[in-house]
Amino acid sequence: MSRAADLIAPITKVVNAEDRRGDIITAAGLLAIALALDALGLVRTSWSGPPDVPSWWFVLPAVVACTALVWRRHHPLGTLGVATVALVADVALGGSVGLLVIVWEALYCVHLYGRRVARRVTAISVAVVSLAAMILVGEMTGEARLAVLAGLQAVTLLVMPMWWGANVRQGRELTAAAHERGRLERDRSTALLRLAEAARHDAVRAERTAVARDLHDVVASHLSAITITSGAALAGEPEPERDRAALRSIRAESLASLQDMQAMIRVLAAETGQGGQAQGGPTADGGPSSGPAQQGSAPPGAGAVGSDLLAAPRVAQLAPVLEQVRLAGLELTVTDPDGVLAGDTILPAAVDHAVYRVVREALTNVLKHGGARAEIRVAAGDGLELTVHDDGVRPGDAPRDPADVGGGTGLGLVSMRERVESLGGTFEAGAANGRPDDGGGSDRDRDGRRSGRADGPGWQVRAVLPLPGRAAAEPASSDRTIRGIRA
What we know:
By secondary structure, the protein is of the alpha+beta class.
């Protein structure tokens, strides 16, 4: 049975082909059926027909109608018209069952392939023909019973192929709609997968940006300070006291950088579920630490992970940073009437951390790109206003060796702006004698603006941070202006 089905399958495929080959095969098959019915004597079914008319004349209307069936798919209404004309000629000869089968196929094709207008015209025509048949039989016989029977026969013979074609058409439309819905669902699934993939890539890019910023803040500032301090110590004549101070500063920065890096690794490992008890780094006295290095007290209410990881640096820890930049040769003036940098003013933890980062990064940029004098101004009112200003390179200032200050990543100003604006503050950075820009540039932009100028205008970084519910730890002290001298 399976082998027979395999042999018949190619023939069935050709017969059911939705193209001109299927139309030709269908027309030839119906012509063969009509000729077979004529050969069986199923002719002159309506009346005896004209005298002396041979039976083979019934072949002519059948050939014409079957030839028109070749265009049944593209011109179904025209095919039905030709088949109707052939049916009239066949009835004039006496009528035959074979041509009636051909007309059924034409009616079927109209309701399967035809447009709505063609289907409507055909339905109206069939209704008119059925009604006319009833009237004609009633007038000829004078019996209502025979008239109704003739109408029922006309409806049965003509409406059945139309109903069949409409059902097949509806089934095909439903199948096509189901396939279209399936295609749309597949397209929707593909689009959702693409959106998810795009979201994942965006999240990865955002995470990389955040990690780059944190690495810059945590490590780059330490390494820049080490480079600048060592370069300043090597640039001058040997001086034991100054050189020992520079070595102590370098050691402190190296330990802080190592501890910050270890803490960041623990944070990343904890976020990925791979965090464990890591080996602590060396302490300030050279011995191994028993746990993660702490640069400040852990914030109250910190979770299990937060209590074991690096606490955010605070402004109270800026004193070594200020000493370090002075050792590097910067004449620094600090104006802090409210004692913010000394820890006398209580700040929210996030603001405290942001102030530390902004001051440190701004001073690092001054050492890299600025002159020999700089000033820090801090004022705490309704908000905290922080300004770091350098006077620029002036005549007589000793030029810095680029190898001593190192290259930058271009993330300094961007990182400061993101930190300040994330807290609802404002950040500006630009030439001191002009209107600062929005901080959207980079350290390289600053270096490019100031290069080649013997008497630069200076540079200013200004950040304003909100202080909701600020409470002073003690009354604001008088002007605590500390003036440094160049080492």
